[in-house]
Design a protein that fits this description.
homodimer
């Protein structure tokens, strides 16, 4: 758990002050009920907050019957949390008063900071540095606030809290968008989903999403954590919090924008954060057990599935599609959801003949089809029995019940077998209701049964659920040393890169560095000849490569030609010599990449190379380092790797060697201090019994 | 309009009898109110049907106060439509009575027909042949019935009609799934979407989806036609009806299963129809102006957009993404929908500087960003003015308004500028409401404004809307003759195929057919040598191809070797000789395919070939024949064609020649009688100034 630095918190922890303050100051509370700034007080009165509220407004003595003070410093009691709603330029002053009063946490609604451009960014920088100096933690600025549905503590101007009663529950929401916090709460409430805590992090200048998640991990009222994200910031803190959430068995579900390029671009303009790469973000979520859903409402709709069956999520990656047993009383409804599942690579599993016989022995005839249709035959008792048998069967990973028109007109009857059946927490039961059936949905929700309004949301949730919680390589950081005499800044030459690859355990094609005045060497012909210079990243662009040199005479002629061409293109480049490299054959060429991603940290990439990769991307990306099993999964994910796994009778390549090369290369993340910003082996040749780096670059951080 | 054959319809048309019967027989109506078969009478009484109802039941004299007859033949008045609800084996008898009574249309609820297996299929065949003989048209069997919301004529047992009042409207639904008819009606009703007609076609043994659509085109109460489809049947009738719907300005929106392989497989087992190919189905819908949506609820949610802006759909294909101007009062809400639009390749358009200046001149400051955020500044009047200016602007194809929390708490206020603005029917205005806001949704719906509940549905609808209504090639059928002396069954030899390609205007590599005893020829070396036999489809599999023969001696040696190998593999094959073909170079190899698809009819396919195509499909498919503009669009769709359009400085290929080759090849659909089942040019070589068929096959129908 994070602790407060230099705060005068006394017995209130940071988490309590943030999530469950017992006394609140509303700085800038208005007595004009038409103004947003009058809302928090009204909301708290409406929702029965029993803590102390201190409106702060120099021009009022009382608002809505509550005594009002001109400054927090004049409040007689201790204050856990201040909600600041005054114009941006006055915020630093207010913060100083908070510090003087010993208030540990301030949520800042005021805008005009980083979101407003460079000048606002400067003001925000001042604010943060002042807050650090004063020891006051900040949520925001530009935060729409926080709400505790259990205490009624609503430090927020969001209109959503006009709702008559706050639905209490065990879901907590952290949102990078203030307005979407309200939208999500309203949508969830209409479905009967209750919340524990909801927080808008605004510009996330100090308290980050990660810190809030960390606090929620320890919150006894929180069972599931939802994230509405536009970007990722401070992933180090977030990663630690996500890992703690996983250990605590609290599922984290995320809806993150930036799946499309234009969404990503928007996100940046919205937040000023550095460019995100959607695939890297996916890898990050996978590595930290986060269930990323694709549809807005799935964010809360997935919560019952995620929380009840947290222990049933796959703990390792299977090459097989997840298998769902589907039972229905509506053929068309089942077909809709099965089609949607298919688009997410989830299999509607056909019962094996043993199971058909097993059910026959229990008096129920079912057919061996991917959808078990009970439209005609079954009683409620038989339905319940089938459910229970399926939930114990070993040929499916989940059971999906698709309910027809009874859900609309006879909700009690429709949900009866679902509610009454014995449901182990080790295999999910999910429900899709084909008609409009809000009452059935609510009943199922009350019984903690995961039920979905649309076939698409059902498939979305199951796809997120069945993503494995990936085991990261257990190789600790800082265990891989770079060879001696490596550069400490800029680019490595190919010769230096080859030495690093060797240190990592990755073989390169046989080669030798030569000087133009002595071309004696021990590399067998035919050869490739390359210029060696740390100033030249793209050798072919400057004529720095010649292939298929067959003998000493070829070489003797080629070297001066090559050097002349290179110097013509790039006269300022310092040339270390030329590399002669044995020409190797291959069954497949791939590319291995390493990147310390600004958003998610070290990643490893396996990809096709060249123009094909640009036309039709074919790659797999993971957080680095990876273990062997994930390396095999990456190979499986790259479609072109079928060319070395026996597809259509093609000769097989060294898949084991490739997997080991991925593992080894990903260990660049384990170099102490992570000095490498990017590295690439391109091409990596896959041969029948070995893999071989044929060219590569390494670039250090500035 | 279709007419009834041999019917005794009198003044009632087929469409009236099907859609708006004035007198109805309920054959098998039960007096036991617990039974499904009691429902239609009750439903019609409840929903105020004013026509005549004749329950038919030999063991009752009266049901629910309505006189009951033992047989339709004893009903004194004329009957437009019979609804048959008796066990399957008695249906043919009932049909004979209908014919005797002169009833033109019978909807058959009874099951136990094709959906129940081979025996049921035989019973259905008997039923259909009896119906044809008697001149009675059948909807079903296994149909859940039909409903006319305006007349209250509900010939259906679907529980959905328990609803207190049928919401009347201008949307009509044709469903291949009975249960989903009810599910869709209930979902639509909860959103205030009213229906005109809804029909379940059941096993579609006689009256097809196409015939129902045709009838709905002439129905004055129907403005939009919705299709819930599991498969396609009788596309000839459907195509004609869809074309009529288009001419009549009645949009057709389809949700079709079978997008995933497992969904497709299920559909088949469900209906017994021949395998569908999802891409071919897409091509079919595109060619017939059908808006295919991907999400179940988009089916009705898209209706207001489709109907109001029918004339604004693009009439030709643009290579540019559709551009949507986005205005919002909620940044996060707009970001959600913009991200979803991006996934569907719809651009959130940034206003040009001229427009920003234009608005400044009208007193509103907006920024040049892809989302116009009015959170702070604007009044309702300014919002309305901006809307109106955007709806007249030439830099966007649609306007999207994203409404925030006001939609939830101040619906009248939130929809005011949307309702009050002047909205031309030439450019769509669509609305996404970020919070739960059912009242705002209903208000917008009442004002015929297309509003969406979720960002995903909004993107889904716009993507379907912006699919162009493709102009088919106007080349009439039957205008392309095959050369003389072509085979009339089986496979063409390569030599025969080359002649057909030449007739179509597609050049093949220079070649000559030789006999082993005379290898004199006029084709320049180097050569490819191939066996010629209509019994051998895959020449390389039997050693029937040798490449790079450099001179006469090579050829003399290769021919007997080749023949011996082929005869070893395939001794029974009749060999017509050997083909020598000039070895050609290429910038790109592609594959051209033609197929008379069992579901959608003739199609033309442009694709990459070989193993790459299997690993990562890269193709475009259209109904054949195609015109030049669609041929260019196909080229644009195949990602690998970038390799001949100047990508990364690569030499350009003959794109115009390729487009013309696609057009020419697609004209195989214009051969009288469409005798060809499949044809393929593989590979088609794209050179810098010409395209050239290098190998090809043609297969005739059995």
């Amino acid at each position: 758990m994070l602790t407060l630095a230099d705060s005068a918190l006394g017995t209130t922890t940071f988490a309590d002050a943030l999530l469950a303050p017992r006394s609140i100051a509303l700085i800038g509370a208005s007595s004009d009920l038409k103004k947003n700034t009058s809302r928090p007080l009204r909301f708290m009165q409406q929702h029965g907050y029993t803590g102390k509220i201190y409106p702060i407004n120099p021009s009022s003595t009382e608002i809505l019957g509550v005594k009002t003070y001109p400054s927090v410093t004049q409040v007689p009691d201790a204050i856990d949390h201040a909600f600041i709603m005054i114009p941006g330029k006055h915020v630093i002053g207010a913060l100083e008063e908070c510090a003087a009063k010993g208030i540990p946490v301030a949520t800042i609604y005021s805008d005009g900071f980083a979101e407003a451009g460079p000048e606002g960014q400067r003001l925000q920088d001042q604010l943060v540095s002042k807050a650090r100096e004063l020891g006051v933690r900040i949520l925001g600025p530009n935060s729409i606030g926080t709400a505790n549905a259990h205490s009624g503590g609503v430090l927020s101007v969001n209109a959503v809290f006009e709702m008559k009663t706050l639905v209490q529950g065990n879901i907590s929401l952290v949102s990078q968008s203030g307005s979407m916090m309200g939208s999500l709460l309203s949508r969830a409430a209409s479905r009967g989903f209750g919340f524990a805590k909801s927080l808008s992090v605004g510009n996330e200048s100090d308290i980050s999403v990660g810190e809030v998640v960390d606090a929620l991990v320890d919150d006894p009222e929180t069972r599931v954590i939802l994230l509405f994200l536009e970007t990722l910031r401070d992933t180090r803190t977030l990663t630690a919090a996500l890992q703690r959430a996983q250990k605590a068995g609290k599922p984290v579900i995320a809806y993150k924008l930036g799946r499309s390029e234009q969404g990503d671009a928007l996100s940046q303009s919205h937040t000023g954060a550095i460019a995100g790469n959607n695939a890297a973000v996916d890898a990050y979520f996978d590595a930290n057990g986060v269930m990323r859903i694709e549809m807005l409402e799935s964010l809360f709709e997935t919560a019952p599935l995620a929380s009840r069956y947290a222990q049933a999520r796959p703990q390792s990656r299977s090459m097989q599609a997840p298998r769902v047993a589907v039972i229905t009383t509506t053929g068309g409804g089942a077909a809709s959801v099965v089609d949607s599942l298919g688009l997410k690579n989830i299999e509607a599993a056909t019962p094996p003949i043993e199971f058909v016989r097993h059910m026959a022995g229990r008096g129920l005839t079912i057919r061996q089809t991917p959808v078990i249709d009970l439209t005609l035959a079954a009683t409620s008792a038989q339905y319940k029995d089938l459910l229970e048998q399926l939930l114990q069967a070993d040929w499916c990973d989940a059971v999906l019940s698709v309910v027809g028109s009874s859900a609309q007109f006879h909700p009690q009857l429709a949900v009866k077998p679902l509610v009454e059946s014995v449901k182990p927490d080790t295999k999910p039961l999910v429900v899709f209701l084909a008609p409009e059936a809000s009452e059935s949905l609510a009943l199922l929700q009350q019984h903690d049964i995961a039920a979905f309004r649309t076939p698409e949301a059902c498939a979305d949730a199951l796809a997120a659920f069945f993503k494995p919680v990936i085991t990261q390589s257990d190789l600790p950081a800082g265990t891989v040393a770079l060879p001696a005499n490596c550069p400490t800044s800029g680019n490595f030459t190919e010769v230096e890169s080859i030495r690093v690859f060797a240190e990592l355990g990755i073989q390169s094609a046989q080669s030798q560095l030569l000087q133009p005045d002595n071309l004696q060497h021990g590399v067998p012909y035919p050869l490739v000849l390359k210029v060696v210079s740390r100033d030249i990243l793209h050798k072919t662009d400057v004529g720095g490569v010649k292939v298929n040199l067959k003998n000493d005479a070829d070489l003797a002629q080629a070297v001066p030609e090559l050097l002349q061409t290179v110097q013509g293109h790039k006269p300022e480049a310092k040339i270390d010599g030329v590399l002669v490299q044995k020409m190797e054959g291959h069954l497949l060429e791939l590319m291995l990449g390493y990147r310390d991603d600004p958003l998610v940290g070290p990643t490893v990439l396996l990809s096709t190379g060249g123009i094909t990769a640009e036309l039709m991307p074919d790659f797999a990306i993971r957080l680095a380092p990876v273990g062997l099993s994930e390396a095999y999964a990456m190979i499986n994910e790259v479609k072109h790797s079928k060319l070395i796994t026996g597809f259509r009778g093609l000769p097989k390549g060294d898949v084991d060697g490739l997997a080991q090369a991925i593992v080894n290369f990903s260990r660049l993340a384990c170099v102490p201090g992570q000095p490498i910003t990017e590295a690439e082996i391109n091409p990596l040749f896959i041969q029948s019994n070995q893999v071989m780096a044929v060219d590569g670059v390494i670039r250090l951080k500035d």
